[in-house]
Design brief:
mainly alpha
Length: 91
């Protein structure tokens, strides 16, 4: 079987829940607060935790949001590939 150039470490739902819970714990808030910051509504991660899913564009936007807003004093989970910060956030 041919390799596709990357290794999937966990499914997307698990990835987003882990990132949300890690950031929420670091900031002393709930996943509802992280959802509000990322989307302006608080139920996104609740839906994922209940087995929901999201569109590909939403997933890409969320992963970029996490990368751009991840605190410098919090290690990014090693199991999750991190996108480069967008240029305006990296400056």
């Amino acid at each position: 079987m041919a390799q596709i150039g990357y290794e999937l470490c966990m499914d997307q739902r698990t990835t987003f829940i882990l990132l949300a819970d890690t950031l929420a714990q670091h900031d002393g808030v709930t996943h509802f607060a992280i959802s509000m910051r990322a989307f302006g509504k608080g139920d996104f991660f609740k839906g994922l935790k209940e087995g929901g899913d999201c569109r590909t564009a939403t997933a890409a936007r969320l992963m970029q949001w996490f990368s751009d807003h991840w605190p410098a004093d919090l290690d990014w989970p090693r199991d999750i590939p991190r996108p480069q910060k967008t240029k305006e956030k990296a400056a």
